[in-house]
Every structure is written in C-alpha cells, then in structure tokens.
Write a structure and sequence with these properties.
Blueprint: E1 5-9, H1 13-24, E2 27-33, E3 51-58, E4 61-67, E5 83-87, H2 91-102, E6 106-112, E7 117-124, E8 130-136
Parallel strand pairs: 1-4, 5-8
Antiparallel strand pairs: 2-3, 3-4, 6-7, 7-8
C-alpha cells in the first residue's frame, strides 16, 4: 500500500507544483488541465488552463494535487485541511529543504532538534500548504 498526499489549490496548482519540483528535485510525471478533460471544451474559459490533476515524483514518493474548483469555476465545498510530512535522511537535508520551502511562507515552528528528531520544523509555504520537515533519530 502507498499513501499519497493530495493538495488542493485555488488557481495556483501549476505554479505550486513547479516550485515543489524545484525544491524537492522531483519530476512532474503527469499534468492534466480542466481543458484536457473529456468535455473540457465545455468548461468555463477562465478554468480551462487550471490543473485537474498533477503528479510529482520524488524518488519513490509521490505528491499529487489540483486546483480545487469545478469546471464552472466554483470551488468544491469542504476542500481544505492538509499537511505534508517530509521525512529526510539527515539534519543538513532537513535544514536545506525547510529553508527552500519556507521562502515566501511563514515558519510556524522553527527547525531544530526534538526528542525524536535531529531536526524537525513546521511551516506554511507561500501557497498556504502546511509542511512538517523531519530528520528522525535512529532507532
């Protein structure tokens, strides 16, 4: 079984996933716009370039997302409340990724040592996504 985080954006999924691709040194393996979907030509013109589905591969991990609106441009009700927990191999990698993801965002818990991790920190990135960066201690 594989658990995958799925993020919802309001008209920023393409920009956000390009940012994540760069930060995490991943690759976008699928990107479908609302206009690419069946009957996409019937979607409201202002929504056709929005993301219906995007998939980012980072090593063996996957992150997916979309712009959380219907083809008419109305937001889907109740789409909110997620965080991505990023586990990395060591403190230096945790600090590097934390700093990159925090660019233009807000740190909610500065990265530092905890009882369970060499480094752990939390932030909200420039797109409003909550991240937890964790470099666990052995055991």
């Amino acid at each position: 079984m594989q658990l995958v985080s799925y993020l919802f954006f309001r008209n920023q999924a393409a920009e956000a996933f390009e940012f994540y691709r760069q930060c995490l040194d991943g690759r976008i393996v699928m990107k479908v716009t609302i206009g690419d979907m069946p009957d996409g030509d019937k979607a409201a013109p202002q929504t056709r370039d929005l993301i219906a589905h995007v998939r980012l591969a980072v090593g063996d991990a996957v992150l997916m997302g979309s712009d959380w609106c219907t083809p008419t441009g109305e937001p889907y009700p109740g789409m909110h409340g997620s965080a991505v927990s990023l586990s990395v191999a060591g403190p230096q990698e945790a600090e590097r990724l934390f700093a990159r993801l925090a660019e233009g965002g807000q740190v909610t818990m500065p990265i530092g040592e905890t009882s369970w991790a060499h480094r752990f920190g939390m932030l909200v990135d420039r797109y409003g996504v909550h991240w937890m960066v964790n470099a666990e201690k052995g055991g």
